Amino acid sequence: MRRCGRVAGAVSVGMVMWLFASGAWAQAESATEKKRTLLAVFAHPDDETMVGPLLAHYGSKADTDVYLVLATGGDQGVTPFAKIPAGKKLAAVRGKEAECACQNLGIHPPIMLGLPDGGLSGFQVLGELVSKIEKVVTDVRPDAIVTWGPEGGYGHADHRLVSAAVTQIVQAGETTTLLYYAALPTKGLTSDVSSALKLPVFKPTAERFLNTRVPYSEEDEAKARAALACHESQFTPETMEQLSALGRRVNNGVMYLRSWSGGAERADLFQP
User: Fold this and answer.
1) Which ranges of the chain have pLDDT less than 50?
2) Number of C-beta neighbours around residue 117 at 10 A
3) Fewer Cβ in 10 A, N or C end of the chain?
4) Per-residue pLDDT tens digits for 12-71
């Protein structure tokens, strides 16, 4: 066994010498340095469907790592058709659904922060939210971050608070300044859409502020639909189809976002 260890060590040293001599070592280091990281931060399992095609788009790239943070386990998201009571059982189901969604999107498994669903507004909990997101930011060192806008998509308090926490961390100046708010353009969004999806009335972002428009492919859209289908405890097949149709109608192959600090138009989240 010792003899094998010495041989392996000799080969390893030889390989290192060859890598330096051939310049391959520098190329390998360069390739590592070029690896980009996108961090998406949302409140509940299924929130990532807002930017599903975008996550699939970057998840398919060899030079990009994509991570998803979910602040809560969604343990209060009871639906009549699923017949799962609020609490740990529902959180476990929704955690599995989130894992399924990430797998279909081609991104890392979800990072669950375990904070109370519908209860992020408490002073102590907000402090935990910020510190836990800060730890993830320190660990993964994102080059770009995506989260809810100030309106929280359709007004949900948890969504708004996650947006505020992420913005607070970015504006402190100790991480990337490439922060984007997920947004819906005004086109295609009518009152009948809100009524059909049983959503409260909300105001989408004016298109003149949507300075980031990332194109995505039909394959990205298909992955997003597969990810949406994982959330069986939250959506009926009919609602899933409505949401997919809405995405096709409103986005039409382009994901719309707003850079938190404005700036020039861009078509890539990693563009300075």
Assistant:
1) 1-11, 16, 19, 25-26, 30-31
2) 20
3) N
4) 555 545 545 556 544 555 445 679 999 999 999 999 999 999 999 999 999 999 999 999
Q: Using the 8-state DSSP alphabet, how is residue 209 labeled? A: G
Would you list the DSSP string of 104-138? HHTSPPPEEEEEPTT-TTSHHHHHHHHHHHHHHHH
Q: Which residue has the tokens 């669950």?
A: 112
Closest CA to 54 of 66, 42, 36, 63: 66
**Spatial distance between the Cα atoms of 255 and 53, rounded to a whole number of angstroms:** 7
Q: At 224, phi and psi to the nearest 5?
A: -65, -40
Alpha carbon separation from 219 to 54, 116, 223, 228, 242 (Å, rounded): 11, 35, 6, 14, 19
Residue pair 131/146 in contact (Cβ under 8 Å)? The answer is no
Q: What angle do CA 86, 89, 94 make, to 5 degrees?
A: 90
- Structure tokens belonging to residue 13: 């040293």
pLDDT score recorded for residue 186: 76
Structure confidence at residue 32 (pLDDT): 52
Query: What does each C-alpha distance from 128 to 100, 111, 135, 193, 236 come to in angstroms?
Result: 27, 15, 11, 36, 33
> How far from chain centre, in Å, is Cα 150?
16
Contacts of 172 (CB under 8 A, 6+ apart): none
SS3 249: helix
Give the whole-angstrom CA distance, residue 70 versus residue 23.
42
CA-CA distances (angstroms) from residue 133 to 91, 145, 194? 20, 11, 31
Amino acid at 102: C
User: What is d(CA 86, CA 72) in angstroms, rounded to the nearest whole number?
Assistant: 13
Residue 2 is predicted with a pLDDT of 38
